[in-house]
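User: I'm writing a tutorial on reading structure tokens. Could you give me a worked example: one chain, its sequence, then its tokens, then a sentence or two explaining what the tokens reveal?
Assistant: Sure. Here is the example chain.
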Amino acid sequence: MNSPSSASDASRPFVTWQRILDWGQEHYRYRTFSKDERIPARSGLLYLVQRGVVRLVSTAQITVNTSKLGSQVSPQTPEETFLGFVGAGQPFEIVAQLSFTLAAYAHIDQTSVLWMYWHDLDNWPHFRREILDAFRYQHQRKLLWLSTLGQRRTIDRLLGFITLLVEEFGEPAEAGYCLPFPLTHAQIGSAIGSTRVTVTRLMGKLRHKGLIATYGDNLICLPAQLGQNDGNGLD
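And here are its predicted structure tokens:
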């Protein structure tokens, strides 16, 4: 992932970013999380990823009438659906919904996050505009994601999903452009509406066709020559 300094150099003056970090630490609005640790995020606050990467998930609210359950039946455990990542230097917020809950987790170790109320941005008017621009960009990426999820074939949804992630977070490596952090087949399956077993099988097909590759500790990559593959005969 980009370091805080490199991320800020590309999007905002480093002095402004450093002032915000100092403010977060002074007001006890800054914390570092371990891998897979849940970030105690709630609606009404703005969160900024200073380092690492945050994984966003949703959980459907399942209401069970226990009075109608037999002695051998236990309530169904709701499953988490992977919604995407937020990288270093980017904002996110948790929106309250009745039908599902949103949650944030540190996807890699040493992920640092600071938080503030929206009115706190009045201290940095230019930074407020950058935050709003970042949310507009995220909205555009979500529209591409929805378009990908509308594909009929699971293998098309899978390749489109991987392509979007690598386009946004990928870093150059020997195998092409690779995600700099791991992603399980179960997480991919939840994102594209499939199962871990199906994702594993289709990942094998994509590797066989040369459309994806793995590098290092099973990091997912798009080969540099991906555009030369026509994708025919996948099924």
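What the tokens reveal: Residues 125-149 form the longest helix (25 residues). Confidence is low (pLDDT under 50) at residues 1-13, 227-233.
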